[in-house]
Amino acid sequence: MGKGGAGKSVIAGTMARLMARRGTRVLALDSDPLPGLSLSLGSGPEPAEPLLGNAAEQDENGHWGWKRGVGPVRAVQRYATDAPDGVRLVQIGKPSREGFGPIIGSSKAFYEVVHHIADAKALRGWTFVGDLPAGPRQAAYDWAPYAHTYVVVAQPTAQSALTARRVARIVRMHRGDAQLVFIANRVSEKADVDHVEQLIGEPVFASLPADDGVAAAERLGVAPIDHAPDSPAITAIERLVSALAKL
Amino acid sequence: MKIAVAGKGGAGKTTVSGTIARGLAQAGHPVLALDADANPMLGVSLGVGAEQTDLLLAVRQGLETGEVEHEPTIEGMVERFGADAPDGVRLVVASRLEVANPGCQCCGVSPDQLLRELEDGERTVVCDLEAGVSTIVRMEPGNADVVLVVANPTGKALEVARRAVEIASDKAEVIVLANRVRDDSDLELMRAVLGDRELIVIPEDPVIAAADRDGLAPIDLDPGSPGVAALVQLADRLAGAPVPA
């Protein structure tokens, strides 16, 4: 979670790939109606019609429900797409010129999925990595009830840190049982970390360096882990994955 | 005139909104700066400070907890959920609330409704929208006179900008800002996605970066820096443009 542009998708996508390389089964959940996670994961731009929409249908009264024989787990098994390193990706869908109409089905299905995956027997042992929409609104409790750990990303700017503070307040209000860690992203020097900590008023769990390789990947809209695999930021995210595993 | 500002989160919407609002006000126009972002930050780039900006959000959210009385009219909202920013800009926080009374003007109102129903009169309304395209998807023609789409030279921000332009084009005059441009290759990258329409270039500016870092208004730090100057110039152009009937 975090402000737009803080680096949520890059961190989520790279963490998912690195975890999968370590042999973890990873389901990446993109609940952001803006493009991001699929590019950072390296699975390219997403299809115009979100596949998950195929799992839902409207009855004669206009109420949405699962298609016959489909439920949250079956929907994931059938309609998740393959990303590199064996990561599976589910997307809520993106609005277009036609508005939100074409993605209502997939949004409803996605909402059911995020509320049921944590208890699903068939997905026991899987790790879920969610990329949430920018800002504090809704995100914490509604769109990531599966989360044990909330990773809040801030770069060393006042707005970014202020957003992290707002996010933390909401997460703690609604998910007091979950872990919450702050990440300082795009850090050039120690003073940047101090700046973030001072603005948030709490210590950061890890910091990730400002990185030309990641910036170049972002410019091109490709996965940083493929474009600049040995860059300092990717190495730092690798350490972050290890540190989170020990929590 | 009503100006709405859209783009990917982090593209610079708030900096653009705040600086244009201040630029218009400095040129003598009455300005209403409307923060419709669910994560309201417009106060920061207008120069009221991060803490004061957070306080305004807290007042707004007081509606949810019942600590703050509801407000039946939109003009009342302007009075109650706002603050005076430098140069006489009136800042109003109108971000969407989690728990809203349906039909209540002050909390059930969505950003697109707000834009529609607010009378601009003599004022210039500058509205900082939620990140992404959700508000412009719901907007109807005439809700705003101008939509400023803020783009950056990155794959994701350009994709959002491309969609925003496509969605807003039937509804308002669309002006695209190429923000944080360092060199010609940045512009080429942007043209490759956005086509050869006019791009207002806002150069990468260390003054804006420094203001972002410390939560200050760029226009207070150095009104003559290249990025700020380009935004003030755009404000002048917008003020001079005839308002569509």
At CATH level 2, the architecture of chain B is: 3-Layer(aba) Sandwich
CATH class of chain A: Alpha Beta
Model regions low in confidence, pLDDT < 50 over at least 5 residues of chain B: none
Number of alpha- plus pi-helical segments of chain B:
11
Oligomeric composition of the shown chains = heterodimer
Shape of chain A: globular
Characteristic key phrases:
heterodimer, A: 247 residues, alpha/beta, Rossmann fold, 4-stranded mixed sheet, B: 245 residues, 8-stranded mixed sheet, 11 helices, 44% helix, 18% strand
Task: Provide an overview of this structure.
The complex is a heterodimer of chains A (247) and B (245). In chain A, 40% of the residues lie in helices and 17% in strands. Chain A contains ten helices and nine strands. In chain A, helix 1 (8-21) crosses helix 10. Chain A is globular and about 60 Å long. Chain B has a single domain (2-240), classed as 3-Layer(aba) Sandwich (Rossmann fold). The termini of chain B are close together. The mean pLDDT of chain B is 90. In chain B, strands 3-4-2-5-1-6-7-8 form an eight-stranded mixed beta sheet, sandwiched between helices. At the A-B interface, helix 6 and helix 8 of A face helix 3, helix 6, helix 7 and helix 9 of B.
Topology, please?
The complex is a heterodimer of chains A (247) and B (245).
Chain A: H1 8-21, E1 26-30, H2 37-41, E2 56-58, E3 64-66, H3 72-79, E4 81-82, E5 88-91, H4 104-116, E6 127-131, H5 139-143, E7 149-154, H6 158-174, E8 179-187, H7 190-200, E9 206-209, H8 212-220, H9 224-227, H10 232-245
Helix pairs in contact in A: 1-10, 3-4, 6-7
Chain B: E1 2-7, H1 13-26, E2 31-35, H2 42-46, H3 50-65, H4 74-80, E3 82-84, E4 90-93, H5 111-117, E5 124-128, H6 134-138, E6 146-151, H7 155-168, E7 173-181, H8 184-194, E8 199-203, H9 206-214, H10 218-221, H11 226-240
Parallel strand pairs in B: 1-5, 1-6, 2-4, 2-5, 6-7, 7-8
Antiparallel strand pairs in B: 3-4
Helix pairs in contact in B: 1-11
